[in-house]
Amino acid sequence: MPFNERNSVEHYIIHQLAGINLNTTEVNEPKQIYGAEWAYTPAKALQRSINEVLVEPNLKKALIRLNPEIKAQPERADEVIHKLRTILISVNQTGLVRANEKFFSWLTNEKTMPFGENNSHRPVRLIDFDDPANNEYLVTNQFRIHHRETKIPDVVLLINGIPVVVGEAKTPSRPSVSWLDAAHDIHHIYENSVPMLFVPNILSFATEGKELFYGPVRCPLEFWAPWRTEDSNTALEKSLGLAEMGRELNHLFQPRRLLDILQNFSLFSTNKKKQRIKIICRFQQYEGANTLIARVMEGRLKKGLIWHFQGSGKSLLMVFAAQKLRRAPELKSPTVLVLVDRVDLDTQISGIFNAADVANVESTDSISELQTLLERDTRKIIISTIHKFRDARPDMNCRDNIIVLVDEAHRTQEGNLGRQMRAALPNAFLFGLTGTPVNKADQNTFCAFGSEEDTGGYLSRYTFHDSIRDRATLPLHFEPRLVDVHVDKEALDAAFAEFQEASALSDAEADALNRKSAKMSAFLKAPERVAKIVRDIACHFQEKVAPQGFKAMIVCPDRAACVQYKEELDTYFPEQASRVVISTTANDTLEFKRQWGMDKGEQEQVVDEFNDADAGLHFLIVTAKLLTGFDAPILQTMYLDKSIKDHTLLQAICRTNRLYPGKTFGRIVDYFGVFDDAAKALEFDEESIKQVISNLSELRSRLPLAMKDALAHFSGVDRRVEGFVGLEAAQEAINTDKKKDAFARDFKYLAKLWESLSPDRLLDIYNEDYRWLAQVYESVKPAADNIGKLLWQALGAQTTRLIHENIHVGAIHSLDAFVLDAEVIEEIFNNPNPKKVKELEKALMKRFDKHGDLPVFKALSERLEACGIRQKKG
Fold first, then answer.
1. Is residue 508 domain-resident?
2. 797 falls within a domain
3. 441-452: per-residue pLDDT in tens?
4. N or C: which end of the chain has fewer CB within 10 A?
């Protein structure tokens, strides 16, 4: 095979990083793109045994070079190396993540040794972060290592003799092989067989020559991420293949960037199961945080708007940004203020910072506490809510190194509280972060946070399409459910006109009464309708959700409906299988408060139980709580029976798009009709060629021309050249989307002819050319899960697009709900006082309860249709 794993991808990686072509006998080859700081050394030339992780001679030279105290007494380097060896050996007892965390402290120069005067402790530098050129960067391949057994990773990157990156390559020309196969080798084989190699690891990467994915130690493959170059965010799939992978490779492993990821964009946290985990940034978090930091460093503009799609990691972006801002010596110990607009978000953000052991974090419990911290000029990371700026005095703190990160910037941040916050901190930097696009209703957010100098008003933008493409979030599947509720429009309008005349109502009074009598919640909470929807939910959950080990949320019209749904759901599931999470008010009865009230601590316990895969809590029933700022990756399905609009809708449905093992999509089952209009905007991507196959004689006559057309795309390309040089030349001949599409059309047509004719002997004379074309096609073809899926189109008035793989339209259910009968209409019409709307509403609901089964009228009127319920003429 001319293009294999070694000569096409592994050697290409070495060539990109070090400028050496291992496929030739030439001594050197000039480097054409940046990244030349890496020098290639064959694995056999490294001064180490097969059992050793560190290249100790190189490390010892670095320790002497970077530490004056060790330079004065070089034998001290052996003491440091002994400490490092101890951590390597301990991996079997402590576990890989904890061993990696211990070594991380050494790599980031946080550890000290008694090398100073009178045995005083001095920091030990393994790496020079201030002057990256002062480090040694080596790349090698076929790095043989033995622990329990011998393994040979394809590519290893070493800094100062320490292996900090492990890479695995697979062939680009076999359709059954992807980067996942390479990642599987690292995660499931190498990390278990030779864990010592990964103790100093910053990250590992995997590629098949088309896509490049990376992840930290012990990271499940679902959470590995792609890397993008700075300009690839603006195009969907620019030029898949070696060239694009090479750009991403060089960008990610540019030494200064790799050191930045090590020092500022790596965290160790504790998950819900009290397990230690390592987290490293995704591309959008790295670029977003550094763009924000660069603006602060420049100091000219004092604001910026960051839109990163729901679920793509805004909270961690704030952690990384706050951490790096606090470490920046140029900012002279700044204050970073993280503001949210609700107490539950405050708890969530505080939990993320605390779990990651971020230093100098303060969470405020009261207005006075926040104001005291600011008045006393506290130099820490302060987490608070916007509401704690109530009654704040102007010019509370006028320092210009206060950086405010406002989470969910489209909400309450722009009312009086937002103005008070700005008056209290007049010289602060203000950065707004939002997970939803700013729509017409929120244009003042641009004014508050956006800068005219930023393209589109955003300092950083990471859309839903970007997040789906990069697997930062999951696609959403929509399952519309038709709940038909009918009323005879003509009869209703005629009766109402008669009532208006008899009661001497003005048009305005009649219109007001009409609006109230058609209030949506009254119809949605009809007992028969709720009963039938819950029955549908129970069947759907047992068939599609529970067998996969996922959980669900039910979103109801209001608090009373939540109780209705709960009571009905208890007839299908044990009582402990569902919990109602709602707020209670001062006007609620004592009985209602006792039964349904829930304080902050209880709510946190419920959320923890819901996130526990082994717990028996399967449903959360809500109306407003937990629709935003609620992170439960195990939540896969949302049953939606409420009118939600704009960014609130987008935030709500994205509760289901979080990554979770075994989860491939989030699901919205829509009983309200929220997505009726959105569904019309969705289009299918059906660009595959459809050729009608007639008979073999005709097919034989077509083959020569089809082969000629496919080969014509590579005029001047020497197909005898093997390895990455030959493959890159072929890819360069089709280096635009237009050329790729044209080649794909011709090759797909040729492939259909080929498959239909096989095993005809006519194919023998074309076999070599066809195999070459097939390998080139496989090497540039997008990953399989990007083909033939639904395009995601606009949702909302602004440029937002909600992208998803598929629309699942369930069987259309004719759920005979309740009926608006003549008795109800008469009761409304016979009441001459239109001001008694509340009484009429109660009477209407009571009548629904009593006569919900009389099939008198069969369609809803226009006013109900305007509220969002589908109507059909009776």
1. yes
2. no
3. 444 555 567 777
4. N
